C-alpha cells in the first residue's frame, strides 16, 4: 500500500511516498533557502511562487524515484497546517487536484504530527511516547498514548527554540538559517558567559527563550560599548548550553513523570549536535528509549507527512474536496478531529 504526501508549509516543496506505512520509497525536497537568504528569513510571497513553480516537477520526481504511476498510489496526504497560508494552499490544491483526477482518497496532516512521525520511518513506536518538538515555529512536549492522539503538556510562552537560534545568529551576523552555524561555532567555544536558564515554575513543562535571546543581545551590545570583543564561539557555546540545558532537563523530567517508553526528538533543532549529545547522556541506561531522526528527516520534508498520513489513512480519516489550508491548526484538535464535522 502506497501513500504519497505533499508538504509546502514553509520554504521547502516536498513530495514523498511510503510503502506499508514505514518504508520510504521516494523522498524529494526542493529547498528555497537560497532565495530567502538575502532577506534573512522566509518571505511568504516568494515562498508561494516557488512552490507553484516546483510542485509539478517535485511530484513527477517522486513518482519517478519510486518507479510508480500515480494510479498505483492508494492515498494522497497533504500538510493542511500550520504554516504560511499561501504556501500551504499550493500543496493542498495540488493534492486535491491529484486526488480528484485519479479518484484517490485525500488525507489532511498536521505538520507537527509529521515531524513526530518522521521517527516511525526508523523505529516502531512503543506507547506512551513523549515528543520534544523543537523547530522554527514550535517548542513543545507532546504526550502520545496511542497513534494519532496528541496531548501538549508543555510549550513555549514566547519564542520557539529555532527562532531563538535564528535571531541570535542574525545578531552574530551569521547567514540564515542560523541554527546550524551556531551549532558549529558552539563546538569550538566555551560556556563562560553565564546566560540565564528560564526554568519557570518548578512543576512547569513550559519553555521561554525570549529572555535568553535578550541577554545575548545585551551582552554583545555592552561588550561593544566597552570596546571588549567577545569570542563569537563563546557566545554561541554559552547560548547553546542554556538552550540545551533547559530542553534536555525538562524533557527528562517529563519522561520520568509520565513513565514513557520512548522519547522522540523532532523538528529542525533536533539536528543540533549539542542537544543530541545532552539527551544521549541523560537517557543512557534509563528505561526510556531515545529516538532522534537522521538529519535529513529533522528539517521539513514530505516523508514525515507520508508517515503520519499513512496512519491517519489507516485510522479512517478522510478529507473532502473542501479541505482548506489552516495556518493555525491546533495539534490537539487535529488529533480529536471528526471527519464528519
Ligand atoms: P515549524 O516546523 O515549527 O512549522 P519550520 O518548519 O520552519 O517550523 P523546521 O524546518 O522544522 O522549522 O526547522 C527549522 C529550524 O531549525 C530553523 O530555525 C533552524 O535554524 C533550526 N536548525 C536547523 N539545524 C539546526 C541545528 N543544527 N542547531 C540548531 N537549530 C537548527
Ligand atoms: Fe517544520
Ligand atoms: Mg523549514
In short:
43% of the residues lie in helices and 18% in strands. The chain has 12 helices and 10 strands.
Write up what this structure looks like.
With 341 residues, this protein is α/β, with parallel strands linked by helices. The strands form two sheets. It has a five-stranded mixed β-sheet with strand order 3-2-1-4-5, with helices on both faces. Strands 8-7-6-9-10 form a five-stranded mixed β-sheet. The protein contains twelve helices and ten strands. It has helices at residues 33-37, 44-66, 85-102, 111-117, 161-171, 179-186, 210-225, 232-257, 273-283, 295-298, 303-314, 331-335; strands at 2-7, 12-19, 23-31, 75-81, 106-110, 129-134, 139-144, 151-155, 262-266, 289-291. Bound molecules: adenosine-5'-triphosphate, fe (iii) ion (FE) and magnesium ion. Residues 111, 115, 135, 267, 300 line the site of fe (iii) ion. Magnesium ion is lined by residues 10-12, 136, 299-300.
What's the gyration radius in Å?
20 Å
Helix share of residues? 40-55%
Distance between the termini: 27 Å
The unique ligands bound to this protein are: adenosine-5'-triphosphate, fe (iii) ion, magnesium ion
Q: Provide the structure class.
A: alpha/beta
Could you name the ranges where pLDDT drops below 50 across 5 or more consecutive residues?
none
On the 0 to 100 scale, the average pLDDT is: 96
**Count of alpha/pi helices:** 12
What summary fits the major beta sheet?
Answer: 5 strands, mixed
Query: What amount of the residues lies in strands?
Result: 15-25%
**Extended strand count:** 10
Largest sheet: spatial strand order: 3-2-1-4-5
What's the helix-strand series? EEEHHEHEHEEEHHHHEHEHHH
Amino acid at each position: 500500500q502506497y501513500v504519497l504526501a505533499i508538504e509546502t508549509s514553509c520554504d521547502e516543496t516536498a513530495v514523498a511516498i511510503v510503502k506499508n506505512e514505514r518504508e520510504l520509497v521516494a523522498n524529494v525536497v526542493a529547498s528555497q533557502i537560497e532565495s530567502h537568504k538575502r532577506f534573512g528569513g522566509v518571505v511568504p510571497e516568494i515562498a508561494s511562487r516557488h512552490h507553484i513553480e516546483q510542485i509539478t516537477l517535485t511530484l513527477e520526481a517522486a513518482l519517478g524515484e519510486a518507479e510508480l504511476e500515480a494510479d498505483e498510489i492508494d492515498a494522497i496526504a497533504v500538510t493542511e497546517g500550520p504554516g504560511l497560508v499561501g504556501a500551504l494552499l499550493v500543496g493542498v490544491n495540488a493534492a486535491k487536484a491529484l486526488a480528484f483526477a485519479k479518484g484517490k482518497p485525500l488525507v489532511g496532516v498536521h505538520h507537527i504530527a509529521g515531524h513526530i512521525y518522521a521517527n516511525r520511518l526508523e523505529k516502531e513506536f512503543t506507547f506512551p511516547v513523549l515528543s520534544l518538538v523543537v523547530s522554527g515555529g514550535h517548542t513543545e512536549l507532546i504526550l502520545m498514548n496511542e497513534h494519532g492522539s496528541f496531548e501538549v503538556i508543555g510549550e513555549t510562552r514566547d519564542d520557539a527554540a529555532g527562532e531563538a537560534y535564528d535571531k541570535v545568529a542574525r545578531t552574530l551576523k551569521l547567514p540564515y538559517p542560523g541554527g546550524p552555524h551556531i551549532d558549529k561555532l558552539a563546538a569550538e567555544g566555551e560556556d563562560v558567559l553565564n546566560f540565564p536558564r528560564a526554568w519557570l515554575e518548578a512543576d512547569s513543562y513550559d519553555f521561554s527563550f525570549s529572555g535568553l535571546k535578550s541577554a545575548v543581545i545585551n551582552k554583545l551590545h555592552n561588550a561593544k560599548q566597552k570596546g571588549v570583543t567577545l569570542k563569537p564561539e563563546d557566545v554561541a557555546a554559552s547560548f547553546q548550553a542554556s538552550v540545551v540545558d533547559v530542553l534536555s532537563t525538562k524533557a527528562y523530567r517529563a519522561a520520568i513523570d509520565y513513565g514513557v517508553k520512548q522519547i522522540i526528538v523532532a523538528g529542525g533543532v533536533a539536528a543540533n549536535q549539542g542537544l543530541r549529545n545532552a539527551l544521549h547522556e541523560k537517557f543512557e541506561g534509563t528505561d526510556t528509549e531515545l529516538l532522534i531522526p537522521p538529519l535529513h528527516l529533522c528539517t521539513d520534508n514530505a516523508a514525515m507527512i507520508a508517515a503520519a498520513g499513512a496512519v491517519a489513512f489507516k485510522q479512517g480519516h478522510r478529507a473532502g474536496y473542501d479541505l482548506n489550508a489552516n495556518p493555525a491548526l491546533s495539534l490537539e484538535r487535529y488529533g480529536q478531529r471528526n471527519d464528519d464535522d
